Amino acid sequence: MKLVVTGGAGYVGSVCAAVLIDRGHEVIVVDNLSTGNRDAVPPKATFVEADIKDVASSVLGGGDVDGVLHFAARSLVGESVVSPAEYWSGNVVTTLALLDAMRETNTTRLVFSSTAATYGEPEHTPITESMPTAPTNPYGATKLAIDHAITSYADAYGLAATSLRYFNVAGAYGEFGENRVVETHLIPLVLRTALGQREKISVFGTDWPTPDGTAVRDYIHVSDLAEAHILALESSEPGTHRIYNLGSGTGFSVSEVIDACSRVTDLPIAVEHAPRRAGDPAVLIASSERAMAELGWTPQFTDLDVIVSDAWTFLKNLGDRSHAARTPSI
To answer: How far apart are CA 187 and CA 171, in angstroms?
Structure first.
């Protein structure tokens, strides 16, 4: 298939693009590089450096694109609270332009990278798709608004769409992994502490109602996430918008993550205990039962040490990579 991957210079987008290419698909990556990395674009992908809302019609205009995997988005919760305009414009307005271009060019298949933040702070875990959506920040609200828009486009225009909602992604796929200027995810932060790039890692709260007193979060290996996107794309049906949660079903505590990072790196990791952060829930875990039943998705990399080990290998080798000179552009 010929596929467009928006945000393909970012973490999850670049991994998904790389997996698609390894499966024999033709991939066009569209990314404005506002947060993505030029050298994260797979060398065999065609790269378009632009905002998707500005080039969607031209990229899809040939009529031979089989589907779109849409990762491009602003994704920092704290930033969304301070600068909501950037999120409503960068996420919602951009996606509406993409949806209209898909309708105009009769590009019918879409997989949207949504988020479990659409559920807000759920009363029960694991979170299922039937639970109420009540996002607590503009980031989650924009993703939910996009989900509503996709549903209406599927109903009215025959779009074959799937939204995938997940929490924390980790690990790496060979030479493609997590490399953000502004990093907020726990595993890369702990690993950077092990490398000496950070002085210490802060643990926010040790008195949560969890087995070890630290907060529990969901983690999914980026390779498993890419597989879910491919399964969703291949099984999409016209006029249908499916929504699936993706997660471990159990989760790992902050202390368990730090311990795993220490085992994998065999390096000391300085830890600072800090008070709880306002609004942080004790446990956030998503159920993947529906995705497993309907998509046939079975995560292969569920061991925390494996997830951390892949992320560690990528991070250590990060400085040796450079794909920019080998990536064709249009």
So the answer is: 9
Q: Which of 139, 153, 166, 173 is catalytic?
A: 139
Q: What is the mean pLDDT of the chain?
A: 93
For the sheet with 252-253, list strands across it.
Answer: 252-253, 216-217, 283-284
- Annotated catalytic, 173? no
Q: Please give the Cα distance from 99 to 83 (Å, whole number).
A: 24
**Which residues of the chain have a pLDDT value below 70?**
319-330
Q: Which residue has the tokens 């670049």?
A: 14
- How do 219-221 and 271-274 pair as beta strands? unpaired
How far the first Cα of the chain sits from its last, in Å, is 19
Strands (E), 32-170: 46-49, 67-70, 109-113, 160-166, 168-170
Whether pTM exceeds 0.85? yes
> Cα-flanking dihedrals φ and ψ of residue 102, to 5°?
-65, -40
The single residue listed with the structure tokens 């109420």 is 132
* Nearby residues of 223 by Cβ (< 8 Å), 6 or more positions away: 15, 19, 171, 173, 300, 301
Name the residue among 170, 126, 168, 197 with its Cα closest to residue 305. Answer: 170
Q: What is the CA radius of gyration of the chain?
A: 19
Residue 330: what pLDDT?
38
Give the Cα separation of 269 and 104 in Å (integer). 53
| Residue 241, SS3 per DSSP | strand
